[in-house]
Amino acid sequence: MDNKIFFFDTTLRDGEQVPGCQLNTHEKVEVARQLEALGVDVIEAGFPVSSPGDFESVVAISKAVRFPTICALTRAVEKDIEVAAESLRFAKHKRIHTGIGSSDYHIKYKFNSTRDQVLERGVAAVKFAKKFVEDIEFYCEDAGRADNEFLARMVEAVIAAGATVVNIPDTTGYCLPEEYGRKIRYLMENVKNVDKAILSCHCHNDLGMATANTIAGVLNGARQVEVTINGIGERAGNTSLEEVAMILKTHKHLDLQCGIETQRIYPLSLLISKMMRMPIQPNKAIVGRNAFAHSSGIHQDGVLKHRENYEIIDPEDVGVPASSIVLTARSGKAALRHHLERLGYHLTKETLQEAYEKFLEVADSKKEIADEDLVRIMDGELHHAAIELNRLQVTCGKSASPTATVELLINGELRRASEIGNGPVNAAFRAVDRILNEQIDLEEYLVQSNINRSYDTAKVHVRINHHNRSFIGFGVDTDIVTASVEAYLNAINKIGILKVADAGTSKAMA
Ligand code: KIV
Ligand code: ZN
Question: Which conformational region is residue 397 in: left (phi greater than 0), alpha (psi within -120 to 50 degrees), or beta?
């Protein structure tokens, strides 16, 4: 049996289904580029029929990425498959991922159907998809709870119809590792044409067993793993890429290879956490802040005597800095450059100087500078915003004409303008534009709500265009208009708009 394990990354599809963590196309392309550099074999880029945004993202990623296969998800529905094929038209290597439920739960209660009927629909979907794309992956949804005999029948039929990969998802995260491994073994031994396709593990983490199940699948013959960075995904998440990659690397005796450049894991983990605004739990395996932190005296002593006394992974193997080089207010530019390069920021002499100045500002108020601080410094977030919202007042409602009064502090100087608009957000943005007296085009505006009993917040993402350059901003507040203006200003501050503000303020008084 071949020893290569294919890494199928679904951070941008299953991972992105986490409420409140949606990325825009621009951000998805950035992640896809980093996944390519990381060495994944397949990028599941989205579910194109689900929204125009998902469609656009698959198109954009197909154009931006060359080496990995780009995969688009569909249901076993002709329209979905046509749309997916269309979204993949620019992809160098393309795959359609179609499928249908395979457990009796799904067959009865989701499809109100029979085993024979869903099997027929699955086969028809593969045949239809094959008209557009050669590489077809079929998912037997909820395979974790499916009857193995029926599952084998389904797998055999879809391979006969042309599926090149068959995904055996534990959709509900139900299986025990031994049980999931046995399922894969059963398929390997009972599906006659199994040698014509690859079996894939797609495990969810509802009982904290996603990684264990995936490894059990691989040990029993599966050769593709479906994973996400930081294990993000719906509910308790998916199998985490970094855990599987490091298990294969650490347990060399398994003799299983993959193309993951493990040193790139940590910077990408930070990027995903930051973009999706999803903090990494401190004790998360491989990428958590404490994953390599030894705090007890006995452990520290042991590690200093011989690292492998308490560490099975060299932190540098996953791109985590050697603990000896700690950044504090006394660190010099060389240490800063070392850490920034490790995180993927390659700076010129001038930009290093600029970053160093911001770093010193932050380091003065903190004992130690963590990687998350560096990322924020580089993205301008810790830098004192040149333009700040001081006050906002809006009037709106049925039959009222939406009006906003905005007060900005520009380098400490108060400026105010009032505007009407087609809604309160539009009025407030217009008031900001008036103060700055600049041409700023709003390219994208996205609101997500985060509802919890005591604290309902709106998260707003915006993308603006200023002289053909795009900037992204983010704002969060219990007031949706305030969150919107904060996001707008967050993006504007990234332009280096100080110059704009200086030019605009003299003319912009209300
Ligand atoms: O968990 C699951 O079953 C899925 C499929 C759509 C592949 O994500
Ligand atoms: Zn899933």
Answer: left
Average of per-residue pLDDT values in the chain: 88
Is 57 near ligand 1, meaning CB less than 6 Å away? no
If residue 106 lies in a helix (H) or strand (E), which one and from where to where? none
Q: Which residue has the tokens 């294990």?
A: 231
Q: What is the number of other CB atoms lying within 10 angstroms of the CB of residue 244?
A: 27
In short, whether 141's Cβ falls inside 6 Å of ligand 1 is: yes
Question: Which phi and psi (to 5°) does residue 40 adopt?
Answer: -70, 155
Cβ-contact 492, 440 below 8 angstroms: yes
What is the per-residue pLDDT for 309? 77
Neighbour order of strands in the sheet with 387-395: 387-395, 403-410, 413-420
Written as six digits, the tokens of 427 are 């009025």
Residue having the nearest C-alpha atom to atom 7 of ligand 1 = 139
Considering the domain delimited by 387-507, tell me its CATH architecture: 2-Layer Sandwich (3.30)
- Which ligand sits nearest to residue 139's alpha carbon? 1
State which H helix or E strand residue 477 sits in.
Answer: strand 469-477
Q: Does 497 score more than 60 pLDDT? A: no
DSSP state of 267: H
Q: Which amino acid is at 357?
A: E
Residue 139 near ligand 1, beta carbon < 6 Å: yes
The CATH number of domain 6-275 is 3.20.20.70: yes
| 482 vs 332: which has the higher pLDDT | 482
The pTM for the full model equals 0.69
Separation between Cα atoms, residue 333 and residue 58, nearest integer Å? 40
More confident call, 265 vs 504 = 265
Domain range summary for the chain, segments of one domain joined by +: 6-275, 293-379, 387-507
The contacts of residue 350 (CB under 8 Å, 6+ apart) are none
Beta strands in 220-369 (DSSP E): 224-227
Ligand 2 centroid to residue 173 C-alpha, Å = 9
C-alpha to C-alpha distances, 480 to 56, 358, 487, nearest whole angstrom: 26, 31, 10
Instruction: Give the residue whose CA is nearest to atom 8 of ligand 1.
Output: 14
Q: How far is the C-alpha of 155 from the C-alpha of 158, rounded, in Å?
A: 5
Could you give the C-alpha distances from 61 to 11, 34, 227, 412, in angstroms and in order? 13, 11, 18, 42
* Residue 274: pLDDT band with limits 50, 70, 90: confident
